[in-house]
Protein 1
Amino acid sequence: MRKKLIVGNWKMNGSQAANAELLAALKAGFNPAQSELALCAPAPYLLQLQAALQGSGIDWGAQDVSAHEGGAYTGEVSAAMLRDCGSRYVIVGHSERRQYHGESDDLVALKAQRALAAGLTPIVCVGETLPDREAGRTEFVVKRQLSAVIHAVGHCCSEIVVAYEPVWAIGTGLSASAEQAQAVHAVLRAQLRAATAQAERNRILYGGSMNAANAAELLRQPDIDGGLIGGASLKAASFLSIAAASPVVALSN
Ligand SMILES: O=C[C@H](O)COP(=O)(O)O
């Protein structure tokens, strides 16, 4: 049996005071029998998460990592530093990084490699824009994005988490339907199976306007192993409702 993995991506939100309140509510409400939980916070707050969450069963991590190992790279945060703050996860290739910071497939792949080398689990985001979808290019785009990472990480491929996040669904209130999401997840699952004999270890999360109302249906899909939640992770009640909606399932592959 495997529990769904529900990851909150706080994006550029939070303050020490607001975080403390949210973390206390999450710790009080988290039921480890329902799901696995993790929070990806802005880097300045990782030590606060470490202090608050150690021993709680809730994991934490960052939203980006440098492609460099260390040294004279002003403003960058290395994978080793994230580990040093107790992080388990790091998001790489979020569409907001690809869109606003020009991150290429190759750069994302290098970041995933750096994360794995430092003992972090990269959450590799892939997803098509609305014009991609309308042009029938969804499968081509997500496979190209994942392929770069698979190629770079080689035999460590089964250690990554993949997050399918259709760009048009992020922060819009317009989630992909369960059928649309499942169809893309099945494509990604097949790609992982072709790359590694241990693809059953890979989790594929859905992200894009997942909330308390639509989570149960999305998380019931056979290839949706959890969620990457933006807006709804900023309130304890909505984030915990998503965790509570997560079915515990038999391994599908
Ligand atoms: O990383 C999270 C995603 O970008 C989803 O954000 P959202 O739940 O606010 O749509």
Protein 2
Amino acid sequence: MRLVTAAEMREIDRRAMEEYGIPSIVLMENAGRWVAQVVASRLGRVAGKRVVVLCGRGNNGGDGLVAARHLWQQGAQVKVFLAAEPESLRGDALTNATIWRRLGQDFYPLLSPTGPQAFKLAIARADAVIDALYGTGFRGELPPEIRPVVEALNASGRFVVAVDIPSGLEADTGQVRGVAVVAHVTVTFGLPKLGLVLEPGVRYVGELLVADISLPLPLIAGNGPGRYYLTGEMVRSWLPSRPPTAHKGNFGHVLVVGGSRGMIGAACLTAAAAMRAGAGLVTLAVPRSWQEIAAAKLTEVMTLGLPETPEGQLSCAAWESLKPLLPRFTVCALGPGLGRHPETVELVKRMVAEIDLPLVLDADGINAFAGEAHLLKRRSSPLILTPHPGEMARLLGVKAAELADKRVEVAERAAREWEAVVVLKGARTVVAAPDGYTGINSTGNPGMATGGTGDVLTGVIAALWAQGLDPFRAAAAGVYLHGLAGDLAAEEKGEAGLVAGDLLEKLPLAWRHTAATEEAKEQHGLSCLG
Ligand SMILES: NC(=O)C1=CN([C@@H]2O[C@H](COP(=O)(O)OP(=O)(O)OC[C@H]3O[C@@H](n4cnc5c(N)ncnc54)[C@H](O)[C@@H]3O)[C@@H](O)[C@H]2O)[C@@H](O)CC1
Ligand SMILES: [K+]
């Protein structure tokens, strides 16, 4: 499903109104009505239930007023706390405030001296609270007079439904500066906002429901360049099928080049992951003295021994040995466990410049270009890069902390500049392609923050690429399946003791879940209303 920024959503709203003639009040009515419907469905019988609605001065508050009216009509006892003077409301929000008044209903002033205390008393007895303080118009941090109100709400343990976006969360970045509403359910309108699926925003959202508020389909349907939330349904349609007459030659031959003294396991994980992700054949090339060890560890994988330095890392001569063999491979994964010996760095640079195979570059393969990212452009083959934030920062010559709240933009810019698919790893991995497609992953858990999981990802992506997916889809499906394998492993074993090898075990199951239509729908991370 497509993801939008606040500005993109505003533009869609504007076009719905101007080009299609849908009045904004209709959009607001639909929005508020969906919120009321969600609250009603969670409360069971609405009559007699106590609902508190927190409304701000903007259109988000207007949506809250519509929801208040519908719940009142169904017999709920509704209290609206307004964080503004009623006279200061404008447009559709003012219209809905006027209707509320004409129904004989009051506003409770949230910002009067006694407002916060009255709000606390009201929520103590409430069956549900609707947060309609701020929506996509919000930037920065909550005003000091609103903070204690939100803190009281979060501490109350009440059932909270956020309107469009939890108040205090920035729609574009997912950043929370200080405090924000922690919702059980967020009903977002038209399309999910980027900040709802990024860290840390995703932790404030609860269950995410996307409501159809009558925005015209041509404005919200998306299959062109843009940002997408990588859901099971989306990835399912990309997975290659296996015809009954298939043979191993149909699913590509992945060459993994990596490993060094002390880090042979990394390359072995990549090779094993490529097998588990459906590659027809996998060959692992390691420094010569480690070939026997690798062969003993991996039953299904073929091995190659390459020239090495006295320290047990691949030497420049490895390239000459490898070159004549390249025509037999479909995709090369370079980097896991290589180490940073100057000769190995030189080898990586030459390989990236000269290889004529699709290339997945990871770990020390990426570090070989630290501060010299421009050299990545000097190549003739398609490239997928899989940096974690530290590696990305080294490539760009900046501090990792500087990238934290602009992960999407950083990955997108890098993809364009280096003409490569960039997989910026971390919670909510971002996959960006040079042609403007971006994916935000929906799977994965903190248990995966453990040595070797990145090596597994590289193998999965290489295998999918070798099976014929285009590089963006190979990378996007790879991060999705890899995260889902992590989720399945964590479900069984918990997060703390999860190791990279567990992901290998769960990869076939992750594939099976994703390929099954109904299960893929469940792995949405979001549901659609209407
Ligand atoms: N046609 C439309 O545009 C539609 C808009 N809808 C709703 O309208 C919302 C957007 O409405 P608005 O653009 O009026 O904005 P909001 O209602 O999100 O915000 C309102 C006010 O908050 C102020 N504000 C922003 N950051 C602040 C901060 N840090 N501290 C204090 N005040 C701050 C803004 O200046 C603005 O006056 C959406 O989230 C959605 O809920 C829906 O009704 C559907 C249709
Ligand atoms: K809100």
Protein 3
Amino acid sequence: MLRSCVSRLRTLAVQRGLPGGAPLPAKDPWSPRVNPGAGRRERAAKPGCVRGDPRSFSSEVMHMDLSLPNPSWSEDMRLLFDQFMKKSEDGSWKHLPSYKSKFTQETEDIKIYFPDAKLMKEKLSQAQLFPRSLEEGLGFEYAMFHNCVEDRTVCIFQGGPYLQGVPGFLHGGAIATMIDATLGTCAVVAIGVAMTASLNISFKRPIPLGSVVVINSQVDKVEGRKLFLSCNIRSVDEKTVYSEATSLFVKLDPKTRLT
Ligand SMILES: CCCCCCCCCC(=O)SCCNC(=O)CCNC(=O)[C@H](O)C(C)(C)COP(=O)(O)OP(=O)(O)OC[C@H]1O[C@@H](n2cnc3c(N)ncnc32)[C@H](O)[C@@H]1OP(=O)(O)O
């Protein structure tokens, strides 16, 4: 699994224009651009760019790595990001970039599950990754790091004001979204294109709006195409456990179509 994991991360690096992979094909409109400016993101959207504004579909915004620090990140968020970037220097951890539109290896991989390739391409041209669909600082601010040796993915997450449920606290659906995204990333890096078959969450403490939390996920067991994963969400000081979850992801069968 380690070899396939490293190879998958290398493929992601190629698709995402990171060092360590062959260059992106110049004419492929589906390929993300190399992100200008290493390690820091000044602004995800141009000033005045609001939700629904066609400019938010500009290739500049769609292909920008949104997992880099931006002005909405709190000090806790920046400190944690810097800590994990430091851990990534020896290669044990890997920072996973993320984009509004995911024209990456997974997008390519999943095309075979759709009988009508043209229709699928049309749909994808307007699609955005759900947790990246809100404007900077208002919704899901997060960065993920993967450890191939330990089969773990860590997500540092700051939930913005548009994710409110009970006043002052994060909505359970928003928490579930980030749990699913973190477990899903861990699963995809480990075995390739997979979907959530079941997800069981125990919400133990409410998460204050605007706070930073750490989602720790890991692969517990692999049985054929089935991957069992678990995760918890903790406060930055690790004293509070906010949520725990277990899940089953199933690697898609190339012989089965999704539609
Ligand atoms: C970098 C990328 C980042 C990605 C992050 C994003 C993560 C987001 C992930 C999602 O949210 S995915 C969206 C929510 N999930 C779905 O919409 C999936 C809907 N379900 C399905 O499409 C299919 O049920 C599924 C693909 C999961 C499985 O269908 P298959 O036809 O491939 O499986 P099959 O029926 O052959 O079963 C294979 C094994 O899995 C088991 N299984 C399948 N579905 C199950 C289920 N729901 N619960 C328990 N076990 C299940 C099944 O019993 C069997 O076990 P055994 O091999 O032991 O017999």
Protein 4
Amino acid sequence: MDSEALKKYSALHPKPAGLTLQYGTAGFRTKAEQLDHVMFRMGLLAVLRSKAVVSTIGIMVTASHNPEEDNGVKLVDPLGEMLHPSWEEYATQLANAEEGELQRIITEICQKAAVNHHKDASVFIGRDTRPSSEKLSQSVIDGISVLGGQYHDYGLVTTPQLHYMVCCRNTHGQYGKATLEGYYEKLSKAFTELIKQSPSSGESQRHLKIDCANGIGALKLSEMESYFPEEVLIHLYNDGTKEKLNHLCGADFVKVHQKPPRGLDMKPNERCCSFDGDADRIVYYYKDATGHFHLIDGDKIATLISIFLKELLAKVGQTLKMAVVQTAYANGSSTRYLEETLKVPVHCVKTGVKHLHHKAQEFDVGVYFEANGHGTVLFSKAAETKIRQLAKEEKDDEKREAAKVLENMIDLINQTVGDAVSDMLVIEAILALKGLTVQQWDAIYTDLPNRLLKVQVADRRVIDTTDAERRAVTPPGLQEKIDALVKNYKLSRAFVRPSGTEDVVRIYAEADTQENADALAHEVSLAVYHLAGGKGAPPQPM
Ligand SMILES: CC(=O)N[C@H]1[C@@H](OP(=O)(O)O)O[C@H](CO)[C@@H](O)[C@@H]1O
Ligand SMILES: [Mg+2]
């Protein structure tokens, strides 16, 4: 390592004095102007990681659904997964090192992680459409270059597209071609094959309105449109030409506020969906004839996909083990439907995609979704091999056809990470094949009314949780208080946890009516405020 060069270049990306940041649930995320040094240093870290695992590593510059002024960065591991937890710690150390300590910290990481300096390093870079992203990705490149790494800059891509590229590269093309064209071709071919067999529905069923959150999704969907079969009639809104990224629109806004985004005119019973700012989340919704808004969130997406896959797996007659992975935020009705009606095992894990992904890998077919619309399906290698073999060789027509559908689902699904474009095509294909309208999908089960709130406290780390974050262990008395409050309502449930992406404590409550869910959420937020060091004025009822 050329220490002089490191010193010189690092000085061009100085760390603001006193600033400490944490590699959280989704990498580093904060105001864009505080991130230049972090980007440079994550360029350094990506080189080390690449040398340590002798594979291409990805770096995505994005702050997803956060405001346009923010930005962030996350690293992508060789098969397109999130950065390994042991390296999150190194990322945090490197980001927070003072200028004079940088060299030492790098040496320490190299020792601890057995980085082989003789190996080549290769990094793929992508960025979202934020005004700050281009300059920040240039800082990433500076970091990569100073340690002698090779890089390929994909420029503007969705987060899942970058994950896909990294996986393609490290599987030497087995997963697909590591180009945007390769991505578009793979997905649209699988989709076209799938919907060939769908009963022809009227034209009105083919329209889909998409709120692109004024982000990257709009750009990439426009690029992809020429690959789609003509049955697909998508209409893009909030394409970023007029309004600000994520402002009053996008999947997070729609999910949190349970209302339609601005900038999308919705007629009764029209099928609509929203992407988030980096297009790794999607939620659907529609307005009924009385004007009432219906949200179809990640839980209902997981349910639709599970119903479809379960039927196919039964048809191919293999004993492949399927399970659904959720977090505590999953609506109680969804868990109950999956377990009791569909009879699919459900597992609850901690918030954050990496936890869901990890758990889903334990099954032949692992469906995972966060309620907010981030999710995908993982097929084990064994399951995939079996399905592809049946699709080719099976003599029984019905079994072979079912296997072919599964095979195309495998190709359509981005198995590296939740992907709004891929998920949307999966959903559209399932609705078309099953001849389901958005209302029929919504009616599979009825969501329990729920409310998500946040409370500011002096130090959110005073709250420690257990049981996949469903119970608070500290501060003393808090869980007992929550238990007592929950008892006052029917079909109720509530939990609190410190956010991994914002300086807040999140409160979730559900109950038999919206009024009760709101009241319970409010009472729990007061308990947090009083027992966990609330900041500012006490939370007000809604
Ligand atoms: C309740 C909620 O939606 N939490 C989100 C949010 O995490 P928090 O740790 O709750 O801030 O951001 C994560 C990253 O995008 C996402 O994985 C997660 O689902
Ligand atoms: Mg996102």
